[in-house]
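User: For my dataset I need records formatted as: sequence, then structure tokens, nothing else. Please produce one.
Assistant:
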Amino acid sequence: MRKLTTLVVLGFIALFTLGNTSCDDQSSREQNETQRESNMQRANKVVPIPVVNNYAAREAVAKQVKRMDQTGKLYYIYLMSVTGTQIGYYVGNTRPVSVCATLTPVDDINYNNGNMAVTKAPGLQGTYGGGNCSNSFFFDAATDAYIEYPTAMGIVTDQPLSIKSDAIRVVSEPPKK
């Protein structure tokens, strides 16, 4: 009986200690949050957030979106070698797009018995997985050929540049043997 009483008393001590520790953790967390908020208030007094009157970045994004929304627009895709030598350029009737861009979500969210699981969704071609996301693709303006290239090797403009570079032409018919 004495052994059982000792175990019960030790159990209560353990519960009290654990309960007290979590209260201390909570008060430490609250102290840290209070200190962080105090620091931010002082920082805002010393260096206030400026009032913005010129929205140049926003204007640039709006201009880019409007320009990308134009139909019949041509894009000049200049390709360079790994050493930076100009290879040539294509004229595309689409802006280069990442090969990882999709029309549907890439993940499925499934709920089962209150649990959530995120799994990869199949692509529109019925396959799973991604591609080399460092590649982009576009369609050639003259032939509508699909062209894919490493994004880091290209410069894209919507007007031709005045650099010496030959146009890369897509052969619409395979060469005769």
